[in-house]
Amino acid sequence: MIEKGMQAALAIVVTGTIGLSIFECKVIHKDNESYLTELKIQKKTNFVIRF
Predict the structure, then answer these.
(1) Are the C-beta atoms of residues 13 and 27 closer than 8 Å to each other?
(2) Domain that holds residue 31
(3) Considering its fold, how many domains does the chain have in total?
(4) Cα–Cα distance between 26 and 41 in angstroms, integer?
């Protein structure tokens, strides 16, 4: 599960870098099981993708 989460995060980051400027990326680990990845992407306005 952790590996899948990391792969998903990397996929989003790579896709984001093509057309968007990534402002900040944070990966928060809780209990070694729960993942909270926040991608703050800057394009005209700032928005956050959470999964």
Answers:
(1) no
(2) 2-50
(3) 1
(4) 11
Phi, psi of 18 (to 5 degrees): -65, -50
What pLDDT does residue 17 have?
Answer: 52
Residue 12: Cβ-neighbour burial (10 angstroms; 0-12, 13-18, 19+): middle
Residue type, 17: T
Give pTM, 2 decimals: 0.20
Helix, strand, coil shares, percent, the chain, to 5: 35, 50, 15
Q: What is the pLDDT of residues 1-51, one digit of tens each?
A: 557 666 666 666 655 554 444 444 444 444 444 444 445 544 444 555 554
